[in-house]
Amino acid sequence: MRYLLASTMLALAVPAAADHHELPDQAEFAATHAEALSGAINHPSRAEDRARDEFRNPAETLALFRVEPDMKVGEYAPGGGWYTRVLGHYLGGEGQLVGLYFDPTSGPFNAESQQGIRAGAAGFPAEAAEFTGLPAENFSAMTLDAIPEGEAGTLDRVLVIRMMHNMMRWNNADSELKKMRELLKPGGMLGIVQHRAPDDAAADYANGSKGYLRQDDVVGYVEALGFELVGSSEVNANPNDPANWEGGVWAMPPSLGGDDEMDARTRDLGESDRMTLLFRKRP
């Protein structure tokens, strides 16, 4: 099984064979960019976000993904601003953050939802500027059905944070990942953090509808779309999460979507068990 890589919590990254390409050593990478990562993570705009850092590990995650401060990075489905604030400040000097929004014509989106997705993309630079206190010119956005001319092949990284399950349950993962691949430079990389189901979880539980996916399924699916797995980490793992909640991942913090009895059981468990995977775009 692929994620026997989980055998040690101390192994933050496990590179896989990847043609003739070599990833920079993660520890050296983290040390090189420690000041920039620390500055972004400890920025005052993140004061309310820091309570989640112990579960989401942004410094270690971005180091695994080898995100450099001068890169052009796509954040898929930016939401409430948690990762936008980290990335905005980390890339705020020489780099650029691009919000990547769903293709409104894919998935179960009615006309009103489609309009909302397009409005979200149009408003992302101003919203990100409000989130971060940085100039709106530092940010751009697009919906994946309308990639602007000249943008294909320009992104160094695309990050998909806790969103694979939605693509799977909406049946648009194939088209969305193909568009992300189109946006990446040759050799560009895709970083995925995703709620993880147990190996033996039933298919109808681990199909995205409960928020959890099996790691082998994710790896096989992404690789079939023109990527190769080049790194894996247990930094966002949580052995306290059995990942078998009847109501799905939303029983876990921070959602706490159960009744009072369920919330009492899950409140102190931390966030969900998560896989953290790095893929490179194949030629």
UniProtKB/TrEMBL annotation:
<dbReference type="GO" id="GO:0008168">
    <property type="term" value="F:methyltransferase activity"/>
</dbReference>
<dbReference type="InterPro" id="IPR016980">
    <property type="entry name" value="S-AdoMet-dep_MeTrfase_Alr7345"/>
</dbReference>
<dbReference type="InterPro" id="IPR029063">
    <property type="entry name" value="SAM-dependent_MTases_sf"/>
</dbReference>
<feature type="signal peptide">
    <location>
        <begin position="1"/>
        <end position="18"/>
    </location>
</feature>
<protein>
    <submittedName>
        <fullName>Methyltransferase</fullName>
    </submittedName>
</protein>
<keyword id="KW-0808">Transferase</keyword>
<keyword id="KW-0732">Signal</keyword>
<dbReference type="GO" id="GO:0032259">
    <property type="term" value="P:methylation"/>
</dbReference>
<keyword id="KW-0489">Methyltransferase</keyword>
